[in-house]
Amino acid sequence: MSICKHMRFRLWPPLVILLQVFVAISAKEKRKCPGGLCIPPELCRPVSVNVYDEVHLEFFSSDECRRRNLKCCPYERIVRAPDTEAPDENEMVCAARNNQGVGKLVYHDKSKAKYGEFPWMAFVYTLQADYEIYLCGGTLIQSKVVLTIAHCVEGKQPNQLRIRFGEWDLEDMVEIYPPQDRAVHKMIIHPHFYNDLLQNDIAILFIDEHVWFTEVVGTVCLPPQNENFDNRRCVFSGWGEDINGRNSSILKRTKLPIVPRGQCQKALRKQLNDRYFQLHEGFLCAGGESGKDACKGDGGSPLVCRIPQAENQYYLAGIVAFGAECGAHGVPGVYVNVPYYRDWIDGEIAKMYHVDIFVN
After folding, report:
1. Whole-number Å distance between alpha carbons of 342 and 338
2. Strands 55-56 and 180-189, how do they pair?
3. How would you class 295 by CB atoms within 10 Å of its CB: exposed for 0-12, middle for 13-18, buried for 19 or more?
4. Are 77 and 219 in contact, with CB atoms under 8 Å apart?
C-alpha cells in the first residue's frame, strides 16, 4: 500500500476549454462519431421534450456509424450503459482504447500509458485527514459498477471507499477532463472468497452516482462465460511499482501473453517449491517474460484483450491478484479469471438493480 498526497495544480478555465476544443478538432480525422459513441438511440438522452410531449432526438450524422441501428450520441448525452447481456461483437457499445491518447499529454516512456488510453481504468482509494490512500486498481464495467479484487476491500465499509475515473498522473493535475470521483454505495465480495489462498478473489463495487462518459471515461466489455484467452497477447495497466521497485505516478502499461493453465501451474509449482500446488479455476496467468509484469500495488488492475473484429474494444480478461516474483523470466503473474465469474457478476448486478441497472 502506498500513500499518495495529491499536490495538483488546476489549469486556467479558458485554457481547459481551448484544450477540449483542440481535442475535439484533432479527433475528427481519426475517429468515427467524433465527440460521441455509436450506440442504440434509447441509450442517448433526448435534447428536449416539447409541450406536446414530442421527444426531439438529435444525433450527429447517421453516416458516422457503420451500423444503421446505431446513432452517434454526444458524450454528454450518454446516460445509460450497455446491456448486461454478453456483448454482441457486431454491436459493441463499450468504450474503445485510445491508442494515441487524448490531446497532447504524452509521457515519453513506452512503459507509460497515454492520457485517456484506457477509459475503464479506476483508482480505488480511501481518505485519511488530507491524504488519499491508494488501495488498488479497478475496472469500470457499467456506469455505476466497478470490479476489483476482494482482498483489497475486505474488512472495509463501503463508506470508507472512493473511486476516481479519468485519472492519469497522480502527482500533477494535468488531465484535460477533470477526474470524476464517486463514493461507494455498496460492495459485494464473492461468497466463497478464501483469503488464505486468495480463491474467488473478486468484488463488485456499486457507486452512488453514474459516471459521465467522456473520451477518457468509459466501460470495458465483459467476456462471455468461460471465454478462453490462451496464448493471446493482452495488455495490463496500473499504478503499482515497476520491476525495479519504483512507484509510478503515471499510469503504466505492459503487453503480456496469456499462459495456458497447465504451463502456468507447472511454473508456479517450481517457483513455490510445492509439487502439489493446484491453480484454482478462478485464476488465469499472464506474463513470464523478463522485465514485464504487474508488480506490487497493481492489485485489482485490469488485464484486457482486444476483441477480434471490433473497433479497438477490449474484453476484461483478468484482474491482477498476486505474483510469485515480479518480472522474472518463466514466472507468470496470476490474475482473477473474469470469464469464469461472468454469470456471477451478471447475477449480482441484476439483484442489485432489480434487473434494470440503468434506471436513474
Report:
1. 6
2. unpaired
3. buried
4. no
Residue that is written with C-alpha cell 481518505 in the block? 127
Dihedral sign of CA atoms 172, 178, 183, 189 in order: negative
21 pLDDT above the threshold of 90: no
Element housing 136 (H / E): strand 131-142
- For every residue of 35-104, DSSP letters joined together read TEEEE-GGGB--SEE-TT--EE---S-GGGSSSTT-EEEEGGGB-S---SSPPPGGG--SPBP-TT-STT
What single letter denotes the amino acid at residue 230? D
pLDDT score recorded for residue 145: 95
Per residue in 55-86, pLDDT (tens digit) is 333 444 445 676 666 777 776 676 544 443 43
Phi, psi of 63 (to 5 degrees): -70, -15
Question: Do residues 202 and 280 touch, judged by C-beta distance below 8 A?
Answer: no
257 is written with which cell numbers?
A: 501473453
Q: Tell me which amino acid residue 269 is.
A: R
Helices (H), strands (E): how many in the chain? 4, 17
- Set out the domains of the chain in order of their start, with CATH numbers: 121-219+343-356 (2.40.10.10), 232-340 (2.40.10.10)
C-alpha cell read off for 115: 492520457
pTM (two decimals)? 0.75
Q: Judge whether 219 and 147 are in contact, CB under 8 Å.
A: no
